[in-house]
Design a protein that fits this description.
Pfam families: Lactamase_B (PF00753). It catalyses: 3',5'-cyclic CMP + H2O = CMP + H(+); 3',5'-cyclic UMP + H2O = UMP + H(+). This protein has helices at about 20-25, 60-65, 70-75, 85-90, 110-115, 130, 140-145, 225-230, 245-260, 270-280, and strands spanning about 10-20, 30-45, 50, 80, 100-105, 125, 170, 180-185, 190-195, 205-210, 215-220, 265-270. It is α+β, with helices and mostly antiparallel strands. The chain has a single domain (about 10-280), classed as Metallo-beta-lactamase, Chain A (4-Layer Sandwich), CATH 3.60.15. The longest helix has 17 residues, at about 245-260. The chain is globular, with a radius of gyration of 17 Å.
Length: about 280
């Protein structure tokens, strides 16, 4: 195992957006394809259920009901049905929202934080610079950055446990292209690495379920084909990236990890293939 303590892993999704594939994959089709808004439920033996992102929720449509925020849903059409939200899926599985003690946020794009307000007792774990990159933005700049402030609760800062420069780290001794990782719970079970480029301060997460190792790589790529076939996104996609150089660096890191660790399950947040292969279909 790449981590010290196994956790149960349920790979799920809440809604999806629609884009021409060519924007996310060089040589892809110009036809619009669906990109699921993935999130992951982790069941920790001591800390209970933990969420990695949330996908969309009905609140996304409330926050984008009027201009200028409504431009978001017109530029990036979103499909979401009642009963698909993380809070509804978890409640159906017998997990009330109050049981979620921790929520790891990979970054602050709306399709990753859409359901944050549904979990009133969760503490939020994220890389400090990810929030710093968006929290002071005006309305238009926030919209261009894919950030809708109203998706966060009013007490977000008080419930935050941001990862900072001096947060605990653990060396990664497996030949991975990262020297160390942030040990989010201090027990080696959730190991976060910075994978900026798509968004400032974006993190990926190494977890293990005892039988398989996973890298939840958020939006480092939009599909498994990208790193498997070495197909970067269309140059136009760089317009929404926080840093093109960092994006290329972490894309290449992901390629290296895939080649050197073929059994590692790399899970991009919006990959239909990963969801079909390893998604549980429901909470386990």
């Amino acid at each position: 195992m790449m981590t010290s303590i196994p956790v149960s892993v349920s790979i799920l999704s809440a809604g999806y957006c629609v884009h021409p594939e060519i924007l996310t994959l060089k040589g892809g089709t110009i036809r619009p394809v669906a990109f699921p808004a993935g999130y992951v439920l982790l069941r920790h033996p001591q800390h209970g259920p933990i969420l990695f992102d949330t996908g969309y929720s009905a609140r996304f449509f409330q926050e984008t009901a009027k201009l200028p925020a409504s431009l978001y849903r017109h530029i990036t059409p979103v499909v979401f049905k009642e009963g698909e939200s993380a809070v509804e899926r978890l409640r159906e599985a017998g997990i009330p929202p109050e049981e979620i003690r921790y929520m790891v946020l990979s970054h602050f794009h709306a399709d990753h934080i859409g359901g944050v307000r549904d979990f009133p007792r969760a503490k939020f774990i994220y890389l400090q610079k990810a929030y710093e990159a968006v929290r002071r933005l005006g309305t238009i700049k926030a919209l261009r950055a894919g950030f809708l402030p109203g998706l966060l609760p009013e007490d977000f800062a008080a419930r935050s446990l941001p990862i900072g420069e001096h947060s605990p780290k653990r060396p990664l001794d497996f030949g991975l292209p990262f020297r160390d990782a942030y040990d989010l719970l201090g027990d080696g079970s959730l190991l976060a690495v910075e994978m900026s480029g798509h968004a400032a301060g974006m993190i990926g997460l190494f977890v293990s379920d005892g039988g398989c190792d996973y890298l939840l790589c958020a939006d480092t790529v939009w599909s498994s084909r990208a790193f498997r076939e070495n197909r970067r996104p269309h140059p136009a996609a760089s317009l929404i990236m926080s840093d093109r150089r960092e994006y290329r660096l972490n894309f290449d890191r992901l390629r290296q990890i895939h080649e050197n660790f073929p059994d590692l399950r790399i899970v991009p947040s919006h990959c239909r293939e990963a969801l079909a292969r390893w998604g549980t279909g429901g909470v386990k």
